[in-house]
Every structure is written in C-alpha cells, then in structure tokens.
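Dear support,

I submitted the protein below through the web form. The confirmation email said the job was done, but the results page showed an empty box. After a refresh the structure appeared. I'm attaching both so you can tell me whether what I see now is the final result or a partial one.
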Amino acid sequence: MDKKDLKIVFLGTPDFAVESLRRLVEGGYNVVGVVTMPDKPAGRGHKMLHSPVKQYAEEKGLFLMQPPKLKAPEFVEQLRSLDADLFIVIAFRMLPEVVWSMPRYGTFNLHASLLPRYRGAAPINWAVMNGDTETGVTTFFLKHEIDTGDVIDQKSISIGPDECVGDVHDRLMMLGADLTIDTVDRILAGNLSSMPQDALEGEPTSAPKIFKETCRIDWSRTAREIHNHVRGLSPYPAAWALLPREDGGEPINVKVFATALIDGTDVVSAMPQVGTPGTIYTAGGRLFVSATNGWIEILSLQPAGKRRMQSDEFLRGYRLASM
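What the results page shows now:
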C-alpha cells in the first residue's frame, strides 16, 4: 500500500506529539484528521490557550476536532465518517473502546518509556527522578487497560547522570517521531508484528501524574536522590523548597532547577560537618544544603514572584539562616 492510500487520524495535545505529526505531514502521509484537547483558559487574563497540536494542525490546514467528550455520539460519528485506516495516539487522553477499535489497522500509541516500565502520565520525569541510566520510546496497540497493549517496537537512549528532564524530553520527542514513522511504514509494508508486554524484560512500574507536593524536596533523602529529584523536574514543573531566613521571618519559597553533588574534588574550605537535613551553609556566593549523607549545592533557583537566577545572585538579595 502507498502512504497516500493509508488514511490516518492523529490524536495528541502537547509539544511532544507535534514532532511526530509534523513528520507525518511533511513526509506525505495521508493525515485525514487531527484530534486534540478543547481550548482552555490560562493565565490571569483567562485567554483561551490552544494546544501545540492544534496550532500546528491549523497552520497546515488539517481537519481538526476538539471533542469535550470522547464518547459523544456526534464525535464518534464524525470520526467514523473519515473512514480512517489507522489511529495514532501520542500524549492524549484515555480513549474509549468505541474509538480505538474503529480503524481496520487498529490504534497505536507512542509512549515515552521502555514499557512495561513507567506506565502512566509522567514517564520521562519518573525515569530521571529515579536515577535511571536508560529510557526510550515504545509503540504499542491500545487495549482496555492503560499502557498495557502489545508492543510493536522500541528505541532506547541513555540518560546522563546530570541530564535534566527537559533535555531527555527533547531527545525522546525526536526519537519518538522516528519510531512513529517506522511503525507506520511497517504497517504499509504488511510486515508488522507485536508481542505482549509480559514477554519483555522488566517489571511493570507506574509513572503517576505529578502534583505540587510530589515536587517538594525532601532533604532527609540522600544527596544523589535529591539531585535526581531536581533534574527529573527541571525545568518543568520544577522541584521546590522552603529556605529559612536569617531574621526568622517567613521562609523563602524557591523553585530549584539545578544542583551539584559535592565530592572529594570539590571541597569548600572550612566546610562544616553535615548537620540536620535541610541545614543551610553558604560560602563565597555558593549555597549548600545538607542531605542525609552529605552536602548538595544549589546552582540555579527562582524565588516566588521573581525570575530564575544563579545562587550567587540569589544570595546577594536574600539572607538565609545558615551555619
């Protein structure tokens, strides 16, 4: 089958999905429809926010649908009228069976992990937060239980020890677009195969949605765990902590974007023994906080209502209660 003959409906919302959609459109594949989230108000002015997928679809003149309810009869009929052969889902909502079972070649999802690891809403964040040294992308066919369908293919990358989730996200976005096109080409060639996830290596793990409290830094953890926590949330949604003021006033709420581990090659002169977890120490414009097993340095942070800054600039404007 020629790629012009395979009618595709693409379902997605964030930037992560746009690169795959762009590759399909610019590669000459027949995208007959795009489904994305309804617009929503954002910011103080409650201006309606369009998803990145919507912005791209409108720019390219693609047929766009934004159903509030995926089971709504009018949406299901509209979708069915497109007579699509294949649905591709990337970073969207959980689909009802009436939708994902519709096309004759099925519905495949691109997921940003090496399934069965990290099923859920935030796989890239949790892989970095947990200190994994490898992650990847997976295409799989949808079925009832979320992220459990038969795997079509996977591609992997390494994660650097100091790499933040923003960098990993961008690399996986490009790798995922490669895998999306590879998967479609295998469908066109008629040589597609898949296997159950329980036949793959690794135990199933979850990657639940991240909330504000998830992002709070727990100084009683090890320095390495805190470092991983920070980089797994940087630049978004960002780890945060309350830093004590020297005058005993209201603690300073800061987002923390970058940290560094302190080892034998980076010893600050006269640096004290590690105190109670969360204890502050400053020296020469550098900001250190004690973890349960050593000091960790904060390199970049953002006080509430202010811009992001390096620690030396922060310490010129704020006086902390330190050793």
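Response: this is the final, complete result; the empty box was a page-load delay. The chain has two domains: 7-199, 213-317.
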